[in-house]
């Protein structure tokens, strides 16, 4: 996957990082991708049309790096649309519009994440023994805010195999005072479900009546439902999509699952799964709380 323009080095690094899941949280992905477009403003272009084409091509490359992240898709479209609709008279003016658009979407994403986390604090404080899955910067922020408010928490983190993204969550929470952290394998969720007050996870997107999130979310939600443990999702309202967005799952390399050659058998490695919203108790966003 190759980006276009003299600023392609930075763009391609970001594309590779997103594709390889080096950046885990969807809000962080959106911010990093938006800021990567800034590199185009450091390159010389002869005409506004040439600059806008480069912006579109690089933005498309970033979007293709992870078609499943609603926030990545919407913020990239917003930046390109803002520059196109400005109908700049010069390249410098188009670059200035890009800078403004990038700053605007970054501020929106970061503010939405913090507002959602703030709204989720009351749930964390009221039910302080939590099981979480994968790595969500919004869930992490909610936990940190609850601790700042004086809460004492116990958090179980699944490993989120095969990328083990939950290990990062556990390591990060281990450095937070007043949080007692336990790392468990994904398949042990049923064993520990009766020890927790609630399950709290982030989201990649909610499309109509389906939550799309890191693979393993669906069985965790089903297990919690069977055990009468509430499941709450925390994230930006912009990730809830009514239409115009088709979620595309990503099927990743078998090498993430098994290092030696798969001799005589197939290996499937989907990155995300689909959880019916009927298994959720609430989706807490920056704007409101959706109850199910």
Explain what you see.
The protein has 292 residues and is of the alpha/beta class. The chain folds into two domains: 8-111, Four Helix Bundle (Hemerythrin (Met), subunit A), CATH 1.20.120.420; 116-291, Rossmann fold (3-Layer(aba) Sandwich), CATH 3.40.50. Helices cover 44% and strands 15% of the residues. It has nine helices and eleven strands. The chain has helices at residues 8-19, 26-36, 48-64, 70-86, 91-126, 137-148, 165-174, 189-192, 217-226, and strands at residues 129-132, 153-158, 179-184, 198-201, 205-207, 210-214, 231-234, 240-241, 272-276, 282-284, 289-291. The strands form two sheets. A seven-stranded mixed sheet has the order 3-2-1-4-7-10-11, sandwiched between helices. The longest helix has 36 residues, at 91-126. The N and C termini lie far apart (41 Å). The relative contact order is 0.12. Residues 1-7 have low confidence and may be disordered.
């Amino acid at each position: 996957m190759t980006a276009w323009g003299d600023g392609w080095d930075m763009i391609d690094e970001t594309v590779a990082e997103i594709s390889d899941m080096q950046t885990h949280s969807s809000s962080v992905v959106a911010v990093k991708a938006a800021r990567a477009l800034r590199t185009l403003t450091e390159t010389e272009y002869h005409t506004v049309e040439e600059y806008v084409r480069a912006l579109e091509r690089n933005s498309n490359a970033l979007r293709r790096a992870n078609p499943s992240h609603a926030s990545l898709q919407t913020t990239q479209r917003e930046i390109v649309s803002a520059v196109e609709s400005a109908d700049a008279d010069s390249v410098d003016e188009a670059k200035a519009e890009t800078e403004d658009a990038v700053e605007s979407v970054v501020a929106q994403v970061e503010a939405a994440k913090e507002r959602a986390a703030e709204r989720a604090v009351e749930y964390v404080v009221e039910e302080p023994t939590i099981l979480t899955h994968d790595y969500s910067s919004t869930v992490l922020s909610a936990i940190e805010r609850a601790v700042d408010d004086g809460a004492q928490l116990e958090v179980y983190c699944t490993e989120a195999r095969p990328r083990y993204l939950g290990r990062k969550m556990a390591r990060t929470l281990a450095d937070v005072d007043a949080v007692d952290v336990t790392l468990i394998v994904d398949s042990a969720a049923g064993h520990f479900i009766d020890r927790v007050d609630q399950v709290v996870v982030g989201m990649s997107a909610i499309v109509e009546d389906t939550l799309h999130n890191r693979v393993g979310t669906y069985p965790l939600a089903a297990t919690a439902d069977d055990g009468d443990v509430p499941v709450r999702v925390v994230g930006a309202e912009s990730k809830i999509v009514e239409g115009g967005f088709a979620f595309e799952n990503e099927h990743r390399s078998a090498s993430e699952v098994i290092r030696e050659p798969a001799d005589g058998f197939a290996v499937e490695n989907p990155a995300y799964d689909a959880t019916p919203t009927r298994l959720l108790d609430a989706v807490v966003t920056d704007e409101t709380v959706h109850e199910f």
